[in-house]
Amino acid sequence: MSNHTGRKPTVVLVHGAFADASGWQAVSAQLHQRGFPVVAVPNPLRGLAYDTAYLQGLLAGIDGPKILVGHSYAGAVISNAAPGIADVRALVFAAAFIPDVGEALGGLLEAHADPSVPALPQQVFQYARPDGSTGTEVWLDQAQFSTAFAADVDASTAAFLAISQRPVAAEAFGEPATAAGWQTIASWALIATKDHAIAPSLERFMAERAGAQIREVDSSHAVMISQPGAVTDLIEQAYEGTR
After folding, report:
1. What distances in angstroms separate CA 74 from CA 19, 41, 131, 177, 230, one per listed residue?
2. pTM of this prediction?
3. Mean pLDDT, consecutive 10-residue segments, the chain of 243 residues?
4. Which domains, and CATH codes, for the chain?
5. Counting beta carbons within 10 angstroms of the beta carbon of residue 171, is it exposed (0 to 12), middle (13 to 18) or buried (19 or more)?
6. Which residues are CB-neighbours of 19 under 8 A, at least 6 positions away?
7. b/e per residue, 24-61, with b = 16+ CB within 10 A?
8. Residue 63: which of 7, 3, 11 has the closest Cα?
9. What are phi and psi of 69, to 5 degrees?
């Protein structure tokens, strides 16, 4: 992949768990209108080490400067991947995890539990891998998906998000981060104040610790769908702040 569309950096959009790249549709359209090249990554959701390696391989084929944007679990992925990639100008975290080296997402959720935020309605299923081992996947109960993930998204869209969600490997919650891109790369963070998937207080803690430029928006976890303009504006700010 090459960036030959102009001087603006390529914006690389990375979705998190229980979602797919189509959730970036509105943000992508707005970025294109502002002249940004865009890549919406099909995050494998196989675990932090696997997804980091996948993203680094994809980024290696994108010429020129890049802004990495991660939603939810993908915040950990972009932060873990960025130090190994040349010319990453900024990291943008949208209702996202921002772990430090050695931290796992499950541990962050436990250490910063908020009684005002209900537990995620997780369901687990297992399957046999070709090598005979057992894989464990996590997804969200369809009946409770809207409340947990997309409470401010229109009902028909939220219903489809529930039935089309992509499960995440259970390993993703237990693998510690091996890098923290925010330690050396300028960062911006969008806090979703009505998030029921990651407590807003945890989002704020991680963003402040990272020294990110912070903006808050009255949104559910699905901020890129319900408030795409806020996400696009923050990406624009990251561009202006690092050009």
Report:
1. 11, 10, 28, 12, 18
2. 0.95
3. 64 98 98 98 98 97 97 98 96 98 96 90 96 96 97 97 97 97 98 97 98 98 98 98 95
4. 10-113+174-242 (3.40.50.1820)
5. middle
6. 71, 72, 161, 165, 166, 222
7. bebbbebbeeeebbbbbbebebebbebbbbbbbebbee
8. 3
9. -125, 125
